[in-house]
Specification:
The protein is α+β, with helices and mostly antiparallel strands. The chain has one domain: Aminopeptidase (3-Layer(aba) Sandwich). The protein has 5 helices and 6 strands; from the N terminus they run ββαααβββαβα.
Length: about 140
Amino acid sequence: MLPCDHAVMVECVRFAPEHLEGVLRLCIAEEWPSFPADPERALRILTAPGVTTVVAVEDGNVLGFAELFSDGELQAYLATMAVDAARRGAGIGRALVRAALGLAGAERVDLLSEDHAVDFYRTFPMFEKPGFRLYPFHRSPDEQF
């Protein structure tokens, strides 16, 4: 077990299959359909080689999770993070990022953010770069990728 942050009364632990239901609940609340649409695929993704997934738990309840891809040395990418809306602002998100990065072994993290989370990420030591997310499978028939 990893301590989350002294400011919060939760633990940050490595993701395990028993946490999947809580992670899916958070994704549904955020209206992120990919993981809930195929829970078996979500489990494979969250436990894949090169992926570090941590969850914030309190009394067995998943309050947040972070999924980070890393080369284990320098570069990491925060692919997905969510914290229960009722528990935001208590340090859980920051603790998740710290725990995931610590386990992944990288020196820096890149990420894309939803608009409502930009101010949160700006509280970390950082600088901003433009970014894009390409969706080759979400195109009209007349578009080429």
